[in-house]
Amino acid sequence: MRKAKDRMTNIEGQLVGKKALITGAGVGIGKAIALRFAQEGAGVAVHVNRSLENGLQVVQEITHNKGKAILVQGDLTKKQEIEAIVRKATSELGNIDILVYNSGVGTQHSPDMVHTITEEDWDTVLSVNLKAFVFLSQMLLPAMMQAGKGSIITISSIRGLLGNPVLASYCASKGGMVLLTKQMALDYAKYNIRVNCICPGFIDTEMFRFYLGKQSDPEASRRVFAGMAAMNRIGRPEEIAASAVFFASDVSSFVTGVALPVDGGYTANGVREIQ
């Protein structure tokens, strides 16, 4: 029992002394990552776009448990607001060691097909899901390069690995994120900056539950999605957070350029379509 307890103790505190900026951290996967990073000892900048109340609740939960967290707000499609986010995070926490880019959107109109999508919808999806990450990284990389260390973690999707009908802009943006992750891993390895990607499957988030709620039979739809995974269930945000801790910590010091599916075996079984 003593050895088992010691092993558990060693797991705690994997991110002590590190500072992390997590985008889209007010709910769902981003929230789970923020809470877990704080539990592991990191100082966390909790980013939200508009949902201040959600962000404040995450910060309060972290500080209530004796962790360090600040709230940063801004529209990631606007470069000036990205600059303000970085200024506040670095002024209050210090140089950022870990970036988790978790922001993402889909189109507001269906179907998302090349012959039907509007220029506005295409630009919005690509701007939030990909372009904003480029310019946020651009502002954080110089300090990481000077320090000779850093970890950048992107949250893509199984839709960045496999196509899906009527999700043209979403698949394009998430696939672009996967390949950009690999490309950046090559450029910045010499600075000891690791760049990795997590590709979640179907995860029990507010967004997923909202989608189910629009179906004629939400419970039946949930069972269908669960059945697409080899493990026959929906994933939990905390399971994505655990993978993010691995990539952020020194345990993965020789890991870079990886696109990791956390999907219960969904992608292991080849191409599956969601109509």
Automatic annotation (TrEMBL):
EC number: 1.1.1.47
PROSITE patterns (UniProt xref): ADH_SHORT
An MF annotation (GO) of this entry: glucose 1-dehydrogenase [NAD(P)+] activity
Top-rank EC class of the record's enzyme: oxidoreductase
UniProt record similarity statement: Belongs to the short-chain dehydrogenases/reductases (SDR) family.
Example of a GO biological process term: monocarboxylic acid metabolic process
Gene3D superfamilies reported for this sequence: NAD(P)-binding Rossmann-like Domain
Database matches in CDD domains: SDR_c (cd05233)
Name of the gene: gdh
Annotated source species: Candidatus Atribacter allofermentans
Keyword annotations from UniProtKB, A to Z: Oxidoreductase
TM segment ranges: none
Protein name, as recorded: Glucose 1-dehydrogenase
